[in-house]
Specification:
With 237 residues, the protein is of the alpha/beta class. 30% of the residues lie in helices and 24% in strands. The radius of gyration is 17 Å and the shape is globular. The structure holds adenosine-5'-triphosphate and magnesium ion.
Length: 237
């Protein structure tokens, strides 16, 4: 299957650049460290599993890569840029697609298409700017990629768990990310929906070549990662 033009233009060709580098990173939330002297490297173009038990710090690693949590020690680089300042952190956030661990039910009615459009927030579409025709076209194309074209006009609250995860994936992809971070995307799905989502993510990774990091508890969903990073007690193996 050929890649849609808008995404082909923006994806990263695999080369030796690291997509994410943590060097001797320590971090926490004020009550003792959650990560201590953690170093890891994720190469561009790979599909990487970040595994570990509850509380190991998997979500914390994603938050650091997104610049949402500043480490107390060590260095972080994402997409070739060191995250030293607030400007650096804003720069990477615009280039990362993020699928959070929990898809909170929407508090207001919103269509699936508009929820995906929100993924463009901060790109061409922002405060006091109307979404452009290109934004809308991109949303349609992205919904097609995740097999949700037919559901564009549906209320987001009326989706099944699996459909809601795919809508969240579309929202993350709508910002044309160079790095896709997914936090336990299969957790609340039944086995069939888990298998469908894993296959979709693996197919999109092969098709679009976006460096993808998936946090997951284990291999029960049948992931075939290029590489696995195991996080235990704040360290990686
Ligand atoms: N906002 C926060 N404030 C205080 N402590 C936090 C916060 N977020 C996480 N922690 C603590 O940091 C540690 C690591 O949390 P984190 O969410 O990174 O783990 P995880 O590996 O993603 O776990 P899970 O598999 O349960 O999602 C835990 O002990 C948790 O209680
Ligand atoms: Mg987590």
């Amino acid at each position: 299957m050929s890649s849609p033009a808008f995404l082909t233009d923006l994806t990263v060709t695999p080369h030796n650049e690291d997509a994410v580098t943590l060097d001797g990173v320590s971090a926490g939330y004020g009550e003792g460290p959650v990560l201590t002297d953690l170093s890891l490297r994720i190469h561009c173009g790979k599909l990487v599993g970040l595994l570990g038990p509850n509380g190991a710090g998997k979500t914390t690693v994603l938050r650091i890569a997104m610049g949402l949590l500043v480490p107390t020690a060590g260095q972080v680089a994402v997409l070739g840029r060191r995250l030293d300042s607030a400007t650096d952190r804003s720069w990477v956030r615009l280039r990362i697609g993020y699928v959070p661990q929990v898809q909170a039910p929407p508090a207001l009615p919103i269509t699936v298409a508009d929820s995906v459009l929100l993924g463009r927030w901060g790109c061409s579409f922002r405060f006091l700017r109307r979404p452009s025709r290109e934004d809308r076209a991109l949303v349609r194309e992205t919904l097609g990629l995740v097999g949700m074209g037919e559901l564009a006009a549906r209320d987001l609250a009326a989706l099944s768990g699996g459909q809601r995860q795919r809508a969240a994936l579309a929202r993350a992809l709508a910002r044309r990310p160079r790095l896709l971070l997914m936090d336990e995307p299969t957790t609340y799905l039944d086995q069939e929906a888990q298998r469908d989502l894993v296959q979709l993510i693996e197919r999109l990774h092969a098709q679009l070549n976006i460096t993808t990091v998936v946090v997951t508890h284990g291999r029960e969903a049948g992931w075939r990662f290029d590489r696995e990073i195991h996080l235990t007690n704040g360290g990686a193996a």
